[in-house]
Amino acid sequence: MNNPDKEFITFEDMMFKSEYKPIKKIYVDLEYMQDLRLGALINMLNVKEELSYVVHNLPKYNSRYDRKICKYFKALKIDESEIDNLMRQPEIIDKLCVTAPFTSIYYQLHEIIIAARNHSKAIEDNPKSIELVVNCSDVDYPKILQDKLCSTLAKQLDVLPRFTKTPRYSLSDNEYLGYDLLLLYDYGEFVKQHASSLIGTGKYADTRIVAQPYIEDEILAKTEDPENLLEYTEKSIDVYCEFFYLRSTILLNQ
């Protein structure tokens, strides 16, 4: 699961499960492709040595199985509540969003879009440009940065991007089913919000869902083999939709 090449082979294979369904519309959580919480932590640093310490500890952070941040940078003596508070301060949001590093998912969007486009071309002649909807739930992402990101995505990926801001996974099933691919920051929350349709009625059977892998704290504390548990969870959810994990990491050469 930690091998990016293996993940992309899996992604390519997944694209062709629904042989006759082209990919026209993609949803992605901004938080999946930009680590805003790490950006908040970086904004709390005071000296150059602290940033060097963060960079040094990124490999451990990248391979985590939980959703915590501060435990991987203990020497900073910052806790999660301080990050939560900072992300609610309007006066710091612009700086935070500029500082927050983009994740591997952002850089892998190119391969994802190519796979989606190639799949659609195999099904229909002259497929339309893919619509890419970016939703930001955690902060009030500045409009100027929204426009800049959309412009970059449009030029680099040849897609039709737009921003939305809705509470995470609060839309109706019909709205999410309007997407051909969902790139989810918090799959656990999505499953909770839409369990009746996902599991109960099978409405999402043909929906492709790619998600950041993680394990809830209370379960992780009792788990001897987290990788095996993630594999089991991935296969279990895949029964109800076309599901697999794709780990979001911070590239060390940013």
Question: Could you write a compact summary of the structure shown?
Answer:
With 254 residues, this protein is α/β, with parallel strands linked by helices. Helices cover 49% and strands 11% of the residues. It has helices at residues 4-15, 30-33, 36-43, 48-62, 80-86, 90-99, 104-123, 143-157, 173-176, 187-193, 195-201, 217-220, 226-237; strands at residues 25-29, 131-135, 160-164, 181-184, 208-211, 242-245.
Structure, explained:
With 254 residues, the protein is an alpha/beta fold. It has 2 domains: 1-34 and 103-254, 3-Layer(aba) Sandwich (Rossmann fold), CATH 3.40.50; 35-101, no CATH class. It is built from 13 helices and 6 strands. It has a 6-stranded parallel β-sheet with strand order 3-2-1-4-5-6. Helix 8 links the parallel strand 2 (131-135) and strand 3 (160-164). Helix 1 (4-15) runs parallel beside helix 7. The longest helix is centred in the middle third of the chain and has 20 residues, at 104-123. It starts with a helix and ends in a 9-residue tail after the last strand. The model has no long low-confidence stretch (mean pLDDT 90).
Low-confidence stretches at least 5 residues in length (pLDDT < 50)? none
In CATH, the architecture of the largest domain is 3-Layer(aba) Sandwich
The first-to-last residue Cα distance is 22 Å
Structural class: alpha/beta
CATH class of the largest domain: Alpha Beta
